[in-house]
Amino acid sequence: MIFAASPVIVLGMTMLISDVADALASGQLSARDHLEQCLAAIDSEDGRRAFVTVNAEEARRNADHTDMLHKAGATLPAFAGVTLSVKDLFDIAGEVTRAGSRVLDDAAPASVDATVVA
Fold it and tell me: Whole-prediction pTM value?
């Protein structure tokens, strides 16, 4: 399988996904540090309201788990530890999919992830 390198832009931060993945795999960057950089960028630009929901604590638990597996020498997927944001048009299990509309604020949470998210 061949992946094309695409720029990752998080509110002004630009890196190639492949560069982030390489830095994580080599131990040059931890998943937790990468996540905290992204969360800081989101917080610093919060006035833009670019993110409807930020699951920071869950993301921190996942990043810490990835770092633990990496330190234990586990074989990890190529993009393990790379942060991901999902547009509010796709279902994420347990989250309300609002599609950018306040009308859907009281909708029931999705029961499963959309295929593109899973």
Answer: 0.79
